[in-house]
Specification:
By secondary structure, the chain is α+β, with helices and mostly antiparallel strands. The protein has helices spanning 4-16, 24-35, 40-50, 54-63, 83-87, 90-101, 143-155, and strands spanning 75-80, 114-119, 131-133, 136-138. The structure holds FE2/S2 (inorganic) cluster.
Length: 157
């Protein structure tokens, strides 16, 4: 269920907008923040608020890399697979992450802590190879640096 404060704020913004559908990404992100991912219930809520169909929301949700239609872990790791990171060692680092976490790309660790996903260029090309964990970007990745990041996140409560 969408928290009433979130719903009220979204409804206020939608009422003030000249073109309410322009807020669709904001609405999806707010619903995702409340549910942890864009659940079917959240899709229906977003559609209702914006006078759109659930299919229209679904089409947009699956277009955006950072909208999740399935539950994700507490830390979502997006490793960049665009051209500069690819040239700077994306494949062995991706394989190292998979091996370290014991999952394949697109999966979540059994403890629900990490989800591993690909990403388009993160804008960190000058520090490639790069990955983003939730909203924090890490560059100049090496296996050692990945170990330190995973260790730190694994120890957080
Ligand atoms: S190509 Fe990876 S950050 Fe730009």
């Amino acid at each position: 269920m969408l928290p009433s404060a979130v719903k009220t704020e979204l409804e206020r913004r939608i009422a003030e907008a000249d073109h309410p559908k322009e807020l669709v990404v904001d609405v999806m992100m707010a619903c995702q923040a409340a549910y942890g991912y864009l659940s079917d219930e959240a899709v229906a809520i977003a559609a209702g608020m914006l006078d759109m169909t659930p299919l229209e929301i679904e089409e947009l949700a699956t277009f955006y890399n950072y909208i999740y239609r399935e539950p994700v872990g507490r830390y979502v790791i997006h490793i960049c697979d665009s051209v500069v990171c690819w040239m700077e060692g994306y494949i062995p680092l991706r394989d190292y992450l998979c091996q370290t976490l014991g999952i394949e790309m697109g999966e979540t660790t059994p403890d629900g802590r990490f989800t591993l996903l690909p990403a388009c260029c993160l804008g960190y090309c000058d520090r490639a190879p790069a990955m983003m964990v939730n909203k924090r970007v890490y560059g100049f990745l090496t296996p050692e640096k990945i170990d330190a990041i995973i260790d730190e996140l694994s120890s957080e409560e």
